Amino acid sequence: MDFWIKWSNIRQVIDYHSILPVISQLPLPIGQRLAQVRGWLHGLMDYDWRSQAVGQYFVHEATQQAMQALMPTAGKKVQLLNTRRRFMHNSREEWESCLFRNQKAIQSIFEKSQIEGLMPLIQAQKEGKGIVLLTCHLDSFCMGIVLMGMSGLRINAVTTSALEDPLVAPVIQRFFQKKIQGMEMHMQGGKLMYHETNLSYFYRALLRGEAVVIQADVPAAPNANAIKMPFLGAKRRLSAGAQRMAIKTNSLVAAYLCLHQGVGQYKVICTPPKTLDSLSPEQSLEPFYQFLETHIRQFPDRWLAADLFRLYENVL
Prior knowledge:
Oligomer: single chain
Distance between the termini: 43 Å
Helix content: 40-55%
Low-confidence stretches: none
Number of domains: 1
Number of helices: 12
Strand content: 15-25%
């Protein structure tokens, strides 16, 4: 067991401390290709930092279960291929995370990318309205935050203190610290904060008229308040944080996704913002979840958190 832990830590140090930083300094076409090769190898080995943290390989199997549910008519080979591609897209997303501190690279990406539907969000912010921005762990969701920030939106994002769990290797913790620092350079003064310890920060940000990004594909904790939302084929118990924040701060709600289009090119899609109906807030949220579901079904291999699917609790 001790040998496995030591080897796991050494492998992660080589991967995250050496390989990723090096390929992030290469020209974008070469760096992206190497990131994809890295991800393909990860898929073959079922290698994911979360698996290393808990000492159990689970991401590949759980992702393949999700692909079977999302693509029931596809053959097993197609489902397996999409499972392996998930690791490739995840590796690309980690490579992108290293680009946020590379001013030349991120400026080139910004100039080649496009954002649809951002102006209503900018206008709402000018009017002092807070915006709860729903998204999911699909494709280049962090790049979307950076590109919207570079376009003038003051934006914050909710993340989790689980990144600092003692089970998570120090090199992985440092990787995320640098990722957060890199993203915050472009967020117009916004912050990525832990919801476990900084929830009040997000309420204040919304009251100041800022945007707050919340992951909508996270299942509700067993004893936590939850919304009951049609999502990916059934009514699910999902986290109620976004609804609660929007209602308490009288903020608008919108959703966004960021899709990788090619080397150094991304497309951010924002939905029009709207106010939740206080009498039926869950019904008001349904179009946003449908927006996210449509794109997950269109690009199932890009759903980096597909392994969460098995944790969804169905409700009547």
